[in-house]
Amino acid sequence: MTVAADRAEREVAVWQQMSEIWFSFKPRLMEICREFDLFPPQVMVLRTLDEPKPMREVATVLACNSSNLTGITDRLEDRDLVRRTSDPDDRRVKLLVLTEAGQELRQRVIERMDVAPDTLGDFSDEELAQLGALLEKLKPAPADA
User: Fold this and answer.
1) E-strand spans in 69-119?
2) Is residue 2 very low, low, confident or very high in pLDDT (cuts 50, 70, 90)?
3) Fewer Cβ atoms within 10 Å of its own Cβ: the N or the C terminal residue of the chain?
4) What is the domain range of residue 80?
């Protein structure tokens, strides 16, 4: 096996491990969704809206098209969690803005989601720092870079 092939095989194996870990936490996400009567895309919208954002930007974060986001937004609006407003700098652009109830729910959802799994308690401080640094390298570059 060549060095390049060995490297590619290791990359696939690591990616599979990461996918397995991500999928192992899906029941936790679904539990949080049930607790707050939300669907996963709605949770993603709430997490994304740390400030008013154009609907197009939110759709990009969710990796969906505008019509899908419209349906998600409609359901969040029905619960008075978000509202659509025109961008004061460009009235053609619709911004998604959290209502007061949306801000409160967003905070509660984030508090629940940000509870670290027990398995991280098995890591030393050095291992946690290493893992954090490695995960930071995996972050995609900002779209506007």
Assistant:
1) 82-87, 90-98
2) confident
3) C
4) 38-138
Who's near 87: CB < 8 A, 6+ residues apart?
Answer: 54, 93, 94, 95
Spatial distance between the Cα atoms of 91 and 128, rounded to a whole number of angstroms: 46
Phi, psi dihedrals of residue 88, rounded to the nearest 5°: -60, -25
Q: Mean pLDDT across the stretch 32-59?
A: 96
| Total number of domains constituting the chain | 1
Give residues with Cβ within 8 angstroms of 81, minimum separation 6.
46, 98, 99, 101, 102, 105
In a domain? residue 45: yes
Is 144 within the bounds of a domain?
no
87: helix, strand or coil: strand
CATH number at residue 75: 1.10.10.10
CA–CA gap between residue 38 and residue 56 (Å, rounded): 21
- pLDDT tens-digit profile of 14-42? 999 999 999 999 999 999 999 999 999 99
Residue 81 is assigned to a structural domain of this protein: yes
